[in-house]
Amino acid sequence: GSGPSYSRLYQFDKLVFTLVTRDGVLVGALVLGVVASLRRAEGTRDRRDDARLISLWAALAALVLVFEKAMFAGHLATIVLPLALLVACRPPDMRWLALALVVLVPWEIANQHDILWPSQLTGVDAGVVESLRSLPRGAEAIADDPGLVWRAGRSTPAQMNDTTDMRVFQGQLTTRVVAEAAATRQNCAVVLSPKGFGTQLVGIRPALQAVGYRLAHAYGHSREFWLKDPCRPVP
Question: For residue range 52-102, what is the model confidence (pLDDT) as tens digits?
Fold first, then answer.
């Protein structure tokens, strides 16, 4: 029951806007396919039945997304598959699609530039990433902001890739769970922040010390870098 809640109108708008901006090629192909199917004779019965069934699938997926409590952009992956299959059942004219791609491909790239070419980190975050990169070969790390781990070219232990507030509120991530993941042989570092695990997980610091960690760096009141010493992960 914890976490944010958004209005249905807001989530419908987000559904449409995100699909158009992040999956412009898919949406364009779908629209051209529907137009093409209306202009030409219907295909086989099997193909028509497939299209109807997949359309129902896509509609139900959209309904669930709009009416769930809090929809985030990543949730839209659930509707991409039926839309792609619908394009396969109602393929567009390839000549028109080729012309549309001249506009759709630059449009999609422009709306995903921050994903394709992420900006360089600065300040504390840059220091944390550099510390993570200096870990032994094959080492994993835990952070309440796992993006720092990935930017360093590292992996997280199982179930530590999603450290969102929702998982903490729902009791999926507790001090014990995080400490047990930190104690695995491969994990060598834990990054805490005041707004994350540093305050959300009561007793996390003594728990880390109990499994062999020490505070290696304290970046003011911003982040803490805990290091297992010694750490000998399997390469």
Answer: 899 999 999 999 999 988 888 889 999 999 999 999 988 888 899 999 999
With contact defined as beta carbons under 8 Å apart, do 71 and 99 qualify?
no
DSSP string, 175-218: HHHHHHHHTSTTEEEEEE-TTTHHHHSTTHHHHHHHTTEEEEEE
How far apart (Å, rounded) are the C-alpha atoms in residues 59 and 56?
5
For residue 170, give both structure tokens: 């729902």
The one-letter amino acid at 86: L
List pLDDT tens digits, range 21-65: 999 999 999 999 888 887 766 555 666 788 889 999 999 999 999
Is the separation of the CB atoms in 43 and 61 below 8 Å?
no
Strand order of the β-sheet with 187-192 is 140-143, 187-192, 223-228, 213-219
| Chain-centroid distance, C-alpha 51 | 29
CB count in 10 Å sphere of residue 145: 18
Per the CB < 8 A criterion, the answer to whether 182 and 211 are in contact is yes
pTM of structure: 0.65
User: Which amino acid is it at 23?
Assistant: D
- Round the CA-based radius of gyration of the chain to a whole number and report it: 23
Beta bridge partners of 227: 189, 214
